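WARN no homologs supplied; continuing
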Amino acid sequence: MNAPHFLLSDVTDAVESSGPDPDAHEFVFIDLASVDPSSKRVAAPKRMLVAGAPARARQRVRSGDVLVSTIRPHLNGVAFVPLPLEGAFASTGFSVLRPRPELVDDRYLFSWVQGPSFVAEMARLATGGSVPAVSDTLVRSMAIPLPPLEEQRRIASILDQADQLRHDRRDAIALLDELATAFLLDMVESAVEFGTVADLVESATYGTSAKAGHGGARGGRLPVIRGGNITREGGLDLDDLVAVDLEDAEADRFSVRDGDVLFFRTGNAESVARSAVLRGDLPVVFAAAVIRLRPLQSSSADFLAAFLDSAYGKSSLRGMGSINPKSLLSMPLPLPPIAEQTDFEGRLQDLRLARTNERLQLAKLDELYASLQFRAFNGRL
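OK structure emitted
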């Protein structure tokens, strides 16, 4: 049975616009970057001095408020305000929905703004080229299906339980990443011999600067690995490759082989130094933003890639200015015995397998949650 629909403006209250108390020393600010679109949580609120409060800190929130980002709404940057953030100030880039408790359950509302119909409608109505956005008024003009409160709470409870299972899987994946860091830390801190990257590789080479787009919409005959294809987890995403046309000599020069380390030398602070080990011999070349390191047989590619992308590696790189093959080869690093490097490699492989299994389970839980959402808001749960 389908529930009656009501405008959000009729079942939520507006939030008064006012800044932090000038007599206070500091306040907590929730800006757009504070909300993680994946977990739908306020992951990184900022504690700031009142004297430096930004003009957009104008919405004092309460526990139970629902935040909906009005910027790039297709990303669905939404979050539920928990009790510890009572009294924080949200950016004017959010539509703050304050449920009227006699009409709408807060957790039900939070689940609904994550639903595909709401996200699709927000994306459709967004305006602006490079930065699509919607207005607070538009958000509040959306109609939400509202069964009786008791039914809302039942639906919210089911969805919350399913969502918690997803969060648990994400936490498990994060723990696996922390274990990999801990293994590397143990090797670094116990090292007794030190050298440079040059001690572990036979060569370091820039990639091709040839422009993609020759020979078709996606390029020419040779796929190119760019910096964006190197993932945060130290893998390679080869689903979105452009291609170039190169002479045979250049194709050989910029080719890759099993065991090569590909290092992203540009980008922002988060992406620079991302490194991945190529698995298998692939008919691809690599771009100029990538440096190919070819490890010696007496060293571990996995250890080298992990160190380059670690806090230790990035700390050394910050003092280099421009990163090029010569400067990368001179980068200092510990030189653990090959037996320790090989043991580290085996541990990483075990962690990768466990991470893959966790991601498969997470994908199934995502499908389950989407199915429950669809049924819940169509009167079929």
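The domain at 5-146 is CATH 3.90.220.20 (Adenine-n6-DNA-methyltransferase TaqI; Chain A, domain 2).
OK
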